Each structure stands twice: as C-alpha cells, then as structure tokens.
Model the fold of this input.
Amino acid sequence: MSKRIITLLSLFLLLLQIACTHRKSDVWSKQKARSWYARQGWLRGCDFIPSTAVNQLEMWQATTFDTATINRELGYAASIGLNSMRVYLHHLAWEIDPAGFKQRVNTYLDIADQHHISTIFVFFDDCWNSQYHAGAQPAPRTGVHNSGWIQDPGSAIYTNAALTDTLERYVKDILTTFGKDPRIILWDLYNEPGNGYGNTSLPLLEKVFQWSRQVNPTQPLSAGVWEVRLEKLSDFQLDHSDVITYHNYMTPEKHREWIDRLRTRGRPLICTEYMARTRGSRFDNIMPMLKMENIGAYNWGLVAGKTNTIYAWDTPIADGKEPALWFHDIFRADGTPYREEEVTLIKQLTGK
Done:
C-alpha cells in the first residue's frame, strides 16, 4: 500500500473519529427532550440529604452512610406522593474509595427505587464552604443555615493543577457505571456555577459537559440556571442542557416571569430548587402552578436535620431556637409534618 493511500486512509479515520465525537457532543434535539419528558410523568420531589448528615461527605463516606435514615425518610416522601429526589455527590468520597463509593450509590438507588422514587444526581457545586476534608465532618453551627455544606471542588480547583484530571476520572467513572441506569433520570452537572466565583467557574462547567458527552449516558444532561446576572454562564448552561433546569425562590409573579422566559427555549422545564417560606415561595402558591404548567418541582429539603435549613440563608438564630416560620423542609425527624395543611395540599396535588 502506497504512502499516499495510507495517508488518505489515516486522514479518513481521523475525520470519522472527529465526526463521531461531534455527534456524541450534540445536545439532544428538542423533540427528543420533549419525548423523554413525556415518559416521566409529573416529577415532584425534594433536594434530599438524610437528616443525620451535615453535608455530602457525611452522607456518602462509608462510616456515616446511614441507610436506615435514608430508607425511613424516603418513606416519608413516598407517603405524600413525591416520586423523585435530587441528591448531591462529592468527588472526595469517590477519590478515597471508588469501588465503595459506587456501591453506596447503588445501595441508595436500591432504597429509592423500593419507594418508587427516581434520582437526579448532582456532580459539582459552588455553594457554601469552599474547603473540605475527609473523615469526621464538623458539627452544625447552632442556628446557621447549611453551616457544614461543602463545595465541590471548591477553591482547590484554583490551587491544585492535578485536581482537574481527578475530576475527569471521577465524572467519567460515575457516568460509565450508571449512565444507563433507569433509576437515574437526569445528571445535574454543576449546581449554581459562579456562586461566589463568577465567570471563573466557566472552564470547569465547559469541561464537565465535555466529559459527560464523551461518555454519552442515556439520561439527559443539565446544569440549572439560577442567576440571570451571570449572563455568560447562564447562556452556556441553557445552550448545552438537554432539558432546562432552574432555581427560583421568588414569589409566584417573579417565578412566572422565569417560566415565560425559559419556555422560549422549546425544551421541558424542571425547577430543581424552590420553596423558601419567608421569601414568599411556598407550597400553596408555587407547587400548583408548576403542576399546571407541567414543570418538574423539587423543593429544597425533606426532613429537618443537621443541615439546619429550617433557618433562613441570612438570618441565623444564635440560641438555636426554632424559627417562627421554617425556611425549608417538610418533616420533623420523627416524620411529623411541620405543617399539616402543606402535606394535605401536596397529597392532593400528587393524588396520594
């Protein structure tokens, strides 16, 4: 075979590889996204962490992985007709023990599936504490909202050049293992990118979409928009998500404005965070609207616990006294509803 033929063949194979890579990197068509969404039914659930965990590492590390609490509290959710949970992972738990971490993820999925609850998993997160460590996690600070919650990867991404390689292996390992798992309905690749970091979060946001498209899971990919002032980040999130996810803790009028704006994208909408009682975002005025509009509805918080999310973001209570009005959460740890009328409404909306 001549050198010219070999060269042409090599070029053809290279172009073929590029074409295949390009196809894998494509965002789902709008029709594919709408067809997927139609098969899900109305998604309603919570951002979930067991009440015994102060953060993602306490949830997922082997010594504190609390299946009894997870099972009990997902039972509370199922009892009022919730059918899906949004759950945060953390790369450090995987880095310490990849096989064990994946087994615990599988165990969680088994428990959720037994309650007929699907899962959205979240990879990265720019919210709250920028530094973290393995092992015993800090006790919650009295009366302080999410005092122990940790970012992923946090400020380390700017000081540890090798961390990006670790994160790529992590994302690809999890997606390769669970990328066809029917118990998982969507991958939320990055929670609130730019929260405190601005556009410096864009390179990692771009990379996590690139890594995920290379694996090409059967579930859709998304990263929820949350701050319109971060225009560059928001545009990237909207342009590269198969299904549009978003956060909104505003009053119904303001929430409606977001819905109308995002509808122009022609893709299904899922609200992956809402319900902050002291800010006018409640079950009685938001959840019926989301159902009527066929928008997935995930409120923050299921059971009051170590995350202290009954307290508002910016209103700590130094003595730890229960606030007059809970910020988030539905149940107390013993399964008693915070407000019976809310649970009654949720049951009516879910047909439970």
